[in-house]
Amino acid sequence: MSHDERAQAMTKDEIVSLLVTHEQLAQQRDDLKRQLDWLKQQLFGSKSERRFVDPDGRQLTLGENPDSSTSAEESTTTVAAHSRRKHPPQEQAQADALRFDPSVPVEEVRLSHPALDEEHEVIGEKISYRLAQRPAAYVVLKYIRPVIKKKSDGALVCPSVPAAVLGKSLADVSLLASMVIDKFLFHLPLYRQHQRMEAAGIHLARSTLTGLIHRTGDLLEPIYLALLASILRSLVIAMDETPIKAGVQSQGKMKTGYFWPIYGDRAEIVFPFAPTRAASFVTETLQGFGGVLLTDGYVAYERYAAQVNSVVHAQCWSHTRRQFLQAEQIEPELTAKALELIGRMYATEARLRSKLTDETKSLELRAVECRPIVDEFFEWLKDTLQQRVLLPRNPFTEAAHYALSRERGLRVFLEHPGVPMDTNHLERQIRPIAIGRKNWMFCWTEIGARYVGIFQSLLASCRLQGVDPYSYLVDVLQRVESHPMSQVELLTPRLWKKNFADNPLRSAIDKRFVNASA
Prior knowledge:
alpha+beta
């Protein structure tokens, strides 16, 4: 039987079945292509979300060549004359090339000159700078205390050793602060710090270092709780979640826990830890909060906001935009239109933010300039879904439904002047967690993950407040024992900067350096 005869012999049901199978295979092919494109982007693509669009269409992208019809003469241009700056003296040029703060110690190395005779004399000096480093500059403080005997009754008197932060611990406060900064700011795991100590001639057990970190975290936990309470008093907070391997589930397998970073409207952030991604954690952590909650599209936040009348739920435009980016390969024209409208919103918002500081006036201008673009965006999405025949599994269809189902939350920034359009400011603070995961990989216990959240909360808040984390930790660790518990909030980075930053407590090794420099 020929091909035509077989086609004529097929029943209507068989033809429909083949068409359905063809459609399913085509959909599966598109899904696999999207997954492959996503994998290529993760491995080889740029992680930046910046998208340059040249309005004139004349900007070349990397790898493009100019039009062959353009001659060399036509592409030349005349460069205006300019004056060249005068080169500074050699020593000043070297000092400018090696930029450093006055706090950096400078050791002089004076070079000898040949013996002078009657025909030579020293008329000046030339200075050159080089940056040097001492490997693992650990210092052992040796306290020498005089023992005094009273002659009348033979009683002995000896001054006591300065109190240590951790009781009778062998660690100075400078070591505790440096260990915390090395691990959580510069992502140097404790086992590497232990190796560095061994290379420097310091012999301690690795369990000792772990114990020092845990005991330091216990001292700082009240400050972390005060920081969380301060953030929950904000009018606008942003919240997200990021995974972390914490706790042994079985041999060779770790449990997956989550940090739930919360960013307040006074440049403060905390990283609470939870063993699950359950919505109940949001309710427990945000208890007492009343304001605007800005998040991504995770349904747990929406359910929480629906249960609490005092909370307004705002949605992130950046996450909405990423949904459309996934449809760029399948529906390039529709995706380009969606990204163009969202780009106009961001450009308008940036222009308003740069010119205005008054929130009332900013809200009025948002209503005049931003609201029409938002209305146009959602109306265009609705019309597109009605007029175009798009499959439910089409990436653009999914992105459009994602945006339309969250329209109410995406419009909140038009009604509240202090609400940003996205959670990018929060995601930038999550980067240290992501970088840390690639270095220390996981936390052996959930308690260890909770300590990671405590340290990251204080260090990230120091960075946001422009506070030196080393000076902060050295001061706070010494101050926490005698500081009133009722005023523990004063030790959070934002208030510490106002009350104690001008005259912080220093460690013994820092005092020696200050005295030597003076």
